[in-house]
Amino acid sequence: MPSPVASSRDCHASTGLWRYFTSLALLRSLAEWYTRVMIVALAQLNPLVGDIVGNCERIRTFIDRARADGAELVVFPELAVTGYPPKDLLMKPKFVEDNAAAIEGLAECTQNGPAALIGFVRRNPEPIGRGLRNAVAFCQGGRLVAECYKSLLPTYDVFDEHRYFEPADKASVVELVLRERRIRLGISICEDLWNDKWIFERQLYRRNLLDELVTAGADVIVNASASPFVMEKQAFREKLLGRQAAIHGRPLLLVNQVGGNDELIFDGASCVFGAKGEVLARAKAFNEDLLLVDLDTPKQARLEPYPDNAASVWEALVLGTRDYVRKCGFRQVVLGLSGGIDSALVACVAVEALGADCVHGIGMPSRYSSDHSVTDARVLAEDLGIDFKLIPIGEMHDVFEERLVPMFEGRPPDVTEENIQARIRGNILMSLSNKFGWLLLTTGNKSELAVGYCTLYGDMCGGLAVISDVPKTMVYELSRHVNAKAGRCVIPESTITKPPSAELRPDQHDQQTLPDYDTLDTILHRYVEQEESAEAIIKLGFDEATVRDVIRKVDLNEYKRKQAATGLKVTSRAFGVGRRMPIAARFT
Q1: Omega prior to 154 cis, within 30 of 0
Q2: Is 225 in the same domain as 349?
Q3: Residue range 242-255: average pLDDT?
Q4: On the CB side of 26, how many CA atoms lie within 13 Å of its CA?
Q5: What is the DSSP letter of 525?
Q6: What is the pLDDT of residue 507?
Q7: Which H or E run includes 478?
């Protein structure tokens, strides 16, 4: 039995140990509080290109929201001040000066936190090289602390940054003062992280900026992006950036612009990747959003779902249409409703984007129009709740033909007479557009535009080609998506199932002059998007005559596409600014 003295000694020793371990636990707790990484907000903005004042107002709003939510750092997209892409606005000195002055005012907004990373344009003071830098401003404590510049400048597809910007020659790491710890942020801008040798078969750049940032001591990688939407791109984007985060064992923050600017659509879906490459948080797709993440407890962050392929294309078309119409100053739109599937899909996109009261449908039946086409157009309009008017063109067509008889004497009717109908319709729609200030939406799809199955100054008339980058087979997929989403046949089943036809002559069907659309779209995908030769496509088992005829039509109709309306880009290779083919050329 232990003595009382011994028991007392043991008691005091236990009390001392308890106090020691309690103090140690308290110190550890305090240390963990001081060394927790940070609370970051990803500000996913929808800017208007060139609207520096309006964009800065949005930026201030998001800084205030981030402060209210307890964020210690808020990150904005690439060129958030100017909007992306600003194109040749960058050649206007006042534009660059106004943008630079704006960043000074935005820095003052960080006086009471949070710190901010904001994309803008900086003039390059060096006497050699291009005159501008694609920059990110690091603002903290009410002042502009540092500037970081983009290193890898893309010049492919829709990008042309070498036209304006001088690349940075070194990696940029800035220190975020957070309580009693300094966190080193490795700053990258969009393309800077798109050069992974394990993912890309051919690297476009000799530098790997992520390696440089980690070597420079970055604790966290930040990427300010304006990365346009392409179907199926989000999965690849997350694979690429997740892999890079895992290889270097660093958290990676990606904030992406959202919204439509001309033909480009930005899908947002900003992400936070953990040091093991896992997606810890994801902002909404196709919407402005402020994503708040505590990197100390990231499992509590939002992980918004990304829509599947058809749904993502639908959302992109809706967003692109809404922003193009509104950012260009229009309020209402008009389109021809033929009873066909293409015009039906465009009408559905317009209603979703703008509201039924802003959409006007015009039916223009000719002597060749079937009764079911007029009926299908009317049923669709009634279901959507849009304004619908009929303007028959039969008499106008007759007058045109009569007046041209002397000139056409001795020549049999051909596609010329068919195209007269399309041009009459184009004139009617453009007249309504002029009179009422409605933006005319064209309804041709990518398959038709590719092979010239469209009429200059006819059905190609308009200000926005909504589905010009949507292959015909996907038009059917999207139409079924519309009906499934609504839980009813918004687009009449007869519109989806009947043989496609332009109805420009009796009993006309598309497949009288074109291969079936499954075959056509496969050939077009390989020739236009993958740049495969006729010989390579034929080796896959396609009929040689069909392949060569399709390719001949694609090449022959380049002159038409150069005169087409701006089209919304959803595939990897859209007609327009991303595909720069000569018109006067011969290559087979």
Answers
A1: no
A2: no
A3: 96
A4: 6
A5: I
A6: 66
A7: helix 472-486
190 is catalytic: yes
Concatenated DSSP letters for 183-195? Answer: EEEEEEEGGGG--
- Dig out the tokens for 55 from the structure: 């964009």
Of 477, 499, 521, which marks where a domain is finished? Answer: 499
pLDDT (mean) for 79-99: 98
User: Is residue 542 in a domain?
Assistant: no
Q: What is the CATH number of the domain that holds 456?
A: 3.40.50.620
From 298, 323, 355, the end of a domain falls on 298
155-169, 207-221, 357-371, 521-535: the lowest-pLDDT one: 357-371
CB burial class (10 A; 0-12, 13-18, 19+) of residue 202? exposed
Locate 442 and state its tokens.
């064209």
The active-site residue, picked from 109, 150, 191, 358, is: 150
* Coil vs helix vs strand at 48: coil
CA–CA gap between residue 254 and residue 392 (Å, rounded): 53
Is 150 catalytic? The answer is yes
| Mean model confidence pLDDT for the chain | 91
The 3-state DSSP class for residue 285 equals strand
Q: What is the pLDDT of residues 116-151, one digit of tens each?
A: 999 999 999 999 999 999 999 999 999 999 999 999
Catalytic residue among 56, 109, 139, 190: 190
Give Cα separations from 271 to 40, 68, 198, 213, 274 (angstroms): 12, 21, 21, 19, 10
CB-based contact 59:45 (threshold 8 Å): yes
102/125 same-domain check: yes
Do 414 and 374 fall into the same domain?
yes
Least confident among 2-16, 494-508, 520-534: 2-16
pTM exceeds 0.85 for this model: yes
Distance (Å) of CA 403 to CA 9, 400, 406: 121, 5, 7
Catalytic residue selected from 56, 72, 78, 161: 78
C-alpha–C-alpha distance, residues 143 and 108, integer Å: 6
Amino acid symbol at 62: F
Range of the domain at 442: 313-499
What average pLDDT does the segment 217-229 reach?
Answer: 97
